[in-house]
Amino acid sequence: MNDGVFIFLIRHGRTEWNKKKIFRGHIDIPLDEVGIQQAEKAGKYLQEVAFTTIYSSTLRRAFQTAQIISRYQSKSVEVIPCQGFSDLNYGEWEGKSYERVKEEYPALYKMWEEKPHKVKIPGGETLSEAAERSFKALEEIILKHKGHFIGIVSHRVIIKLVILKMLGIGESGFWMIRQDPCCINIVRFYGYKFSILRVNDTSHIFTLKENLGISDF
After folding, report:
1. Does the annotation flag 58 for ligand binding?
2. Residue 112: inside a domain
3. Is 15 annotated as a binding residue?
4. β-pairing, 79-81 with 184-190?
5. 26 is in an annotated binding site
6. 14 is in an annotated binding site
7. Per the domain annotation, does 217 fall within a domain?
8. What is the CATH number of the domain that holds 73?
């Protein structure tokens, strides 16, 4: 392979709070039983990729997913935690269902649905702040891994923001991209350009009946 880098952006498997549509953010909850099954399926699907390294959000749901995927590699692959890929800090929304957030913050939630790039959640961070830290982490990884296949296990919001930045669209396009639990996105970086090869691939988990009605939450 040449000096290009293939980047596999993988969303973590399902948690109980994904199922119940509760905002997670920096609250450190584990995968549920279905999430573990999803990660196992992803590991089998990616077992011939031959990752050099797998990076992960520091949060347990992502790190668990990364560890499971790494076990399916033919050679030992290190899983490295990276704060830059941790989930959006939802501040006061964390631990609350989206129904409760809609009731307690009606105007702000409406803006979240219509103009998410303008939202500053009390006690949390903006999409632009999260985009800046996550893309900086990605750039540092690319410099270290020319000619390699790299896995990055992160979160719905973070992966959306990274892809949007690659496309030059910006945070206003947040709802243009869907990211279901344990989906896989593939990107090639070569010649100072990103090529998006695959987005929100969930073909590896379609056989799980629990994935019927999976959602971008």
Report:
1. no
2. no
3. yes
4. unpaired
5. no
6. yes
7. no
8. 3.40.50.1240
Residue 13 labelled as part of a binding site: yes
How far does CA 112 lie from the centroid of its chain? 19
> Phi then psi for 13, rounded to 5 degrees?
-70, 175
- Give 144-157 pLDDT, tens digit per residue: 998 999 999 999 99
Residue at 44: amino acid letter:
K
**Residue 27 included in any domain:** yes
Tokens representing residue 144 in the block: 């270290």
pLDDT tens digit sequence for 197-215: 999 999 999 776 565 555 7
Residue 93 annotated in ligand binding: no
**Residue 3, amino acid:** D
**Domain residue limits at 79:** 5-90+126-211
Q: φ and ψ at 65, to 5 degrees? A: -60, -45
- At residue 93, the 3 state secondary structure works out as helix
The residue ranges of DSSP E strands in the chain, in sequence order, are 5-11, 53-56, 79-81, 149-154, 184-190, 193-201
Q: What is the dihedral of CA 37, 31, 187, 175, to 10 degrees?
A: 110
Domain count for the chain? 1
Query: Quick check: pTM over 0.90?
Result: yes
Pairing of strands 149-154, 53-56: parallel
Residues 63, 133 contacting (CB under 8 angstroms): no
114 is in an annotated binding site: no
Q: Which of 215, 209, 152 is nearest to 33 (CA)?
A: 209
Instruction: Note whether residue 70 is domain-resident.
Output: yes
**Strand pairing category for 53-56 and 5-11:** unpaired
